[in-house]
Every structure is written in structure tokens, then in C-alpha cells.
Write a structure and sequence with these properties.
The chain is an alpha+beta fold and 320 residues long. 35% of the residues lie in helices and 21% in strands. The longest helix is centred in the first third of the chain and has 30 residues. The radius of gyration is 19 Å and the shape is globular. Bound molecules: L-MYO-inositol-1-phosphate (LIP). It comes from Auriscalpium vulgare.
Length: 320
């Protein structure tokens, strides 16, 4: 079965970008409703920090309906459809992979880092991504082989990474690293994450065994926006255990098209290819584009940083 062509992907990008903006308007309406307490209660999924609102469902229904009308032969994977029991296996067919509101906790708290994330998978590989944060009017797009871009406040698309060619990254100690607590707050996962974060930030000369003293740690509260910020060059890397393919599918394409390196767990192949196993493996690491140097290619530099990182953190178990 032949894959999508570059021309198909250009048409799909136009469709997906317009759909993301339409969904963004509903997200803003929902935020006003939730802040004015006119919205129905905030729901819980796995536990009290795994939140869902009527607007997560409303946005996904809008997106799923419009995709079905425009591309009836495409498959669909969505966070809320999955929660409701729709769990068809991934096939070679073109498949939209959607998180209607990524950063739902931020959405509930009016912390303006929530977005819709629409990814497209073809032949089991992510090939297109659109991430739209309507609170800041930041639209990130990426298409395999066609680059990734950021449009701010309706302005022209700016190629990613912003600021031109990739910069060096000599060591983890010079990195700004995104991490997330995620929704699994049970031991041992939460303590292994805390210990990992301590080593990433801690001073090895100050009593933190194995400390790397990275410049600092950040959490945007949205996997998609963390990926987008790595693509933009505002973060050097992002690591998370426990989020899902719909959280990361679009961000993977946007980061890769900006020169980013994406892999899965410590034991995954670190060759930069995002296989179905990595896409669905729920353990993700993305490193921004890094300038090559004498004797070290850009990819080798990214693999070096990934190795240093995985020598520092713990391989936290998934919560099932
Ligand atoms: C969120 C992710 C975030 C993760 C949260 C949650 P949601 O997705 O974007 O990275 O730490 O636990 O999974 O639930 O807001 O779509």
C-alpha cells in the first residue's frame, strides 16, 4: 500500500491547521466556562490528577467528525475515544492521532500552556504534526521532509529552530531539561522520578552522588508543548515516562523536522528512527538539534547527550 505523497501531506497540513484553529476556539470557550464555573464538574480518569473535562470530549468529537467527513478512509486514535474503549490496533493506513486538550490540568487551572495536538501516522511512522496553543496563539507545524515552523499571533511561519542553526551542547550540565511528574504518583515510580530529577539538577561536588547539575529543570505540563519548545530551541531536551502516543505524535514530527533526535527508553535503539515500538512505548526522550564539530556529527552529539542522560536517570516502570 503506497504511502502519502508530499503533495498529499501539503493538502493535509492545510486541513489540519484550519481544524486545529477551529478546535482552539472551543478550548478558549471552555476555559472561560470552567473559570466562570458554568461548566460541568471536572472529571477524573485514573486518579485525582488525571483530569478530564467536557471540553476534552467536545473538542475530540469535533475533530473526529471533521476528519471523518474529509478523510473517511483514514483511521483515528484519540485520547478520549481510547478512554471510552476504542482501541483499534495501529495499521499501515493513514491514522490521525489526536489529543484534544494536551495539558488538561493547565486548562483547568487557567495556566496558559494547553493545546490541541493533531498528529498523522502513515505506514506506522509519524509524518505530520500540528500543535496549537490558543491561549498564546502559537501554532507549531511539521511535515516529514518539509520542515517545521512556528506562527505567532497570526504572523508568518518562522522556521524551527528559531534563531538559525543548531548550537553546540557540550554536556548535560549545560542543558535546560523538561521533565514531568505525570499522573502516576505511586511508589516506586514517584520516588524514582524524584531521585532522577535530583541527580539531573544536583551538584556532585555538593553531596549529590551522580549529580549532573544541569542548568535547570522545567515542566510546561504538556508533552506536546514540551516537544514544541525543544523544536523551537527554548529547551535542550525533554524526558517523560507514562504519557501516550496522542501526547507526543505531533511533537515528534515537529521536533525531528527541526533537527531533533527522538528515542524511547534507555534500551531502545538510539538511531533517531521513531518506530511503532517507540511511538507506542510510553517512554520518550527528545534532544534538540546540536551543532556537529570536528570528529563528532550532530547525531553523534545527540546520542552522547542521550547516553549521559540515561546514565543519570532511573528506568521508571510504567503504571500499566
Ligand atoms: C498530559 C501530558 C503530560 C503528562 C500528564 C498528562 P493530558 O496529557 O501532556 O506530559 O505529564 O500526566 O498525561 O492528560 O493533559 O492530555
Amino acid at each position: 500500500m503506497a504511502g502519502l505523497t508530499s503533495s498529499d501531506l501539503r493538502d493535509l497540513l492545510s486541513f489540519t491547521t484550519a481544524l486545529a484553529r477551529k478546535a482552539g476556539a472551543v478550548i478558549l470557550e471552555g476555559s472561560r466556562a470552567i473559570q466562570s464555573a458554568s461548566a460541568s464538574d471536572i472529571g477524573e480518569k485514573k486518579n485525582s490528577v488525571d483530569l478530564v473535562t467536557e471540553y476534552d470530549v467536545k473538542v475530540e468529537e469535533l475533530v473526529k467528525r471533521e476528519i471523518k467527513d474529509a478523510y473517511p478512509e483514514f483511521q483515528f486514535i484519540g485520547e478520549e475515544s481510547y478512554s471510552a474503549g476504542s482501541r483499534a490496533p495501529l495499521t499501515d493506513a493513514p491514522t490521525f492521532c489526536v489529543d484534544p486538550i494536551d495539558g488538561t490540568t493547565n486548562f483547568v487551572h487557567a495556566f496558559p500552556f494547553a493545546c490541541i495536538s493533531i498528529g498523522l501516522i502513515d505506514q506506522r511512522r509519524p509524518v505530520l504534526g500540528v500543535i496549537y496553543n490558543p491561549f498564546l496563539d502559537h501554532l507549531y507545524t511539521g511535515v516529514s521532509g518539509q520542515g517545521s515552523f512556528l506562527s505567532r499571533s497570526g504572523g508568518p511561519p518562522e522556521r524551527l529552530p528559531l534563531g538559525g542553526p543548531a548550537r553546540p551542547l557540550p554536556a548535560l550540565s549545560q542543558a535546560l531539561v523538561a521533565i514531568e511528574w505525570g499522573s502516576d504518583r505511586k511508589a516506586p515510580a514517584i520516588t524514582q522520578k524524584a531521585d532522577s530529577f535530583t541527580r539531573l539538577a544536583g551538584d556532585p561536588a555538593g553531596g549529590v552522588a551522580g549529580g549532573r547539575m544541569a542548568h535547570s529543570l522545567r515542566s510546561l505540563g504538556s508533552a506536546a508543548l514540551n516537544f514544541a519548545m525543544v523544536a523551537q530551541g527554548g529547551l535542550d531536551m525533554y524526558w517523560e515516562i507514562g504519557c501516550w502516543p496522542w501526547d507526543v505524535c505531533a511533537g515528534i514530527v515537529i521536533a525531528q523536522e527541526a533537527g531533533g533526535f527522538v528515542t524511547g527508553s534507555k534500551d531502545a535503539p538510539h538511531d533517531g528512527n521513531v518506530t511503532e515500538a517507540i511511538l507506542t512505548g510510553r517512554k520518550y526522550l527528545v534532544v534538540r538539534g546540536i551543532a556537529g564539530s570536528e570528529g563528532e556529527t550532530s547525531l553523534a552529539a545527540q546520542q552522547r547527550i542521550a547516553r549521559e542522560f540515561y546514565d543519570t536517570v532511573e528506568d521508571v516502570p510504567l503504571d500499566g
